[in-house]
């Protein structure tokens, strides 16, 4: 299972987004946090910025919609150029229909769970998704400390993915750093969103390489990966 590192532009300089995207050219995806000041208590950016960013970088965009009414708005982010669109199950009226619409428009469909939202009620939805995002902080702000209590949830989710034989990416977002990424990889995550750990570093590209190396080493010895 390939490790993927997705730097979050929430921690980048919004006045220099094109340059900040180039600074992490070795990343797998660029993670774009869309917040509406309703689903979460913060306001970031929307469709016009995603359109501009998609034109400015060759790195595919991974849009994480922390917004109300994702059923209405998510398809517009695919049209804006996002290669992957994540909606929150807590906000979606019809998650299966929405995932199918995102896929039909040509993007990868992803569903996110807040820390207090269990994975088990959504086991039957997993085949409809390309990725599942487990938040390892409360969504809304960057720079928060990693919640260790999410590790069992990551493990349980990985077990469900294995149980059903799915090619489903398992992403984590929140507090990912060189000191936490190995625990997450060992638990079963394979896609890692990192904001402060990348963009607060002196060399963001080197930070991406260091995170990838630590996650790859942990994955290589993880029991879930050895079973594949």
TrEMBL record:
Biological role stated in the UniProt entry: Catalyzes the reversible epimerization of D-ribulose 5-phosphate to D-xylulose 5-phosphate.
This enzyme's EC code(s): 5.1.3.1
Cofactor binding note from Swiss-Prot or TrEMBL: Binds 1 divalent metal cation per subunit.
Cofactors: Fe(2+); a divalent metal cation; Co(2+); Mn(2+)
Pathway listed: Carbohydrate degradation
EC main group: isomerase
Catalytic activity annotation: D-ribulose 5-phosphate = D-xylulose 5-phosphate
Residues forming coiled coils: none
Binding site for a divalent metal cation: 31, 33, 64, 173
Active site: 33 (proton acceptor), 173 (proton donor)
Protein name, per record: Ribulose-phosphate 3-epimerase
Taxonomic lineage of the native organism: Bacteria, Bacillati, Actinomycetota, Actinomycetes, Kitasatosporales
Keyword Secreted set for record: no
Domain of life: Bacteria
Organism of provenance: Streptomyces fragilis
UniProt family annotation: Belongs to the ribulose-phosphate 3-epimerase family.
Annotated substrate binding sites: 8, 64, 140-143, 173-175, 195-196
Name of one Pfam family that matches: Ribul_P_3_epim
GO MF entries: D-ribulose-phosphate 3-epimerase activity
